[in-house]
Specification:
The chain is mainly alpha-helical and about 290 residues long. About 65% of the residues lie in helices and about 0% in strands. It starts with a helix and ends in a 10-residue tail after the last helix. It folds into two domains: about 15-150, no CATH class; about 175-293, no CATH class. α2 (about 15-35) runs antiparallel to α7 and α13 packs antiparallel against α14 (about 250-270).
């Protein structure tokens, strides 16, 4: 019967230790993302900004046939000063730290989800690859955020607690993170395979040459086309191997390692740090929790 594997997959009890690690790492990624806005949030969103309230309202109304304006609720529509925008960022960063420590439980994770979604709704045309991952990650962690961080470890705090006991909510959160990570990797691979430069082996060179300060220099890479071909096809091979190894329990840890290797290669090639970091964090959902002795 199909209902038994389905129930075991979704509704069995799982330990919440991986969720604690993911929540801490996700909070760090959120802090990095919010910090990246400090340089130009006023340029985009204050009353004289490129996307000031009047201009963004006009743009959203012109696109109302695709998505109603009421679905883009955000408190940033009522903040039109640079000082107010910075206060919002500081508040969002404080909430991320609170969630990192595990204080507030689901309220803190939902607050982080709302803060990121507020930025997404305020400037949807500036959204890249990081925002969808951040918002959905916090939504899944709101189902079960994992146990809090013990700031002063004691014998009682190291003992098994109710918040760290196996639960169905923890399993659902982990399964959603796993499915989202796998689907994202699969769609990314499909998108790459749809590009001719990936088949020709030139994608690594083009990605590196488009960046202003690439970690992988292109001056010497252009003189070694076979190396560029090797890196391009090697990245595709790593991503395919990762997808094949992630779900079987006997090969899952190797799938995580190959996934992390591809994230490192992406970071070197594209000079992007936050996006591959988020993918690497999502892969932590495939790392099994330690079982009790």
């Amino acid at each position: 019967m199909l209902n038994r594997p389905w129930d075991n997959f979704w509704f069995s009890a799982s330990r919440s230790e991986p969720l604690r690690v993911i929540r801490i790492c996700w909070s760090v990624a959120t802090l990095i993302y919010l910090f990246s806005w400090f340089d130009d949030i006023g340029f985009w969103m204050d009353r004289e900004g490129v996307l000031n309230k009047g201009r963004i309202t006009e743009l959203l109304q012109s696109a109302a046939n695709e998505q109603p304006p009421w679905t883009r609720l955000s408190p940033l529509y009522w903040i039109d000063t640079t000082t107010g925008l910075y206060l919002f960022l500081f508040s969002a960063m404080a909430i991320a730290v609170i969630a990192m420590l595990g204080v507030g439980g689901r309220i803190a994770t939902l607050a982080n989800w709302f803060c990121i979604l507020s930025i997404v709704h305020r400037a949807p045309m500036l959204i890249g690859l990081c925002e969808p991952l951040l918002t959905l990650g916090w939504a899944y962690l709101s189902i079960h955020p994992g146990p809090p961080v013990a700031l002063k470890p004691t014998a009682s705090s190291l003992a098994k607690t109710a918040s760290d006991s196996p639960s169905i909510a923890a399993n659902i959160a982990l399964r959603l993170l796993q499915l989202h990570a796998f689907a994202w990797l699969f769609l990314a691979l499909a998108s790459q395979c749809a590009g001719l430069v990936w088949w020709q082996g030139e994608a690594v060179w083009w990605l590196a040459s488009e960046q202003r300060s690439p970690a992988l220099p292109t001056q010497w890479l252009a003189n070694y086309p076979y190396l560029a071909n090797l890196l391009t096809h090697g990245l595709i091979a790593l991503e395919i191997i990762t997808l094949l190894l992630l779900w079987p329990t006997s090969t899952r840890k190797w799938g995580v390692w190959t996934g992390w290797a591809s994230c490192i290669l992406i970071a070197l090639i594209s000079d992007q740090f936050l996006y591959p970091l988020m993918i690497a964090i999502l892969l932590l959902s495939f790392v099994p929790a330690k079982t009790d002795k």
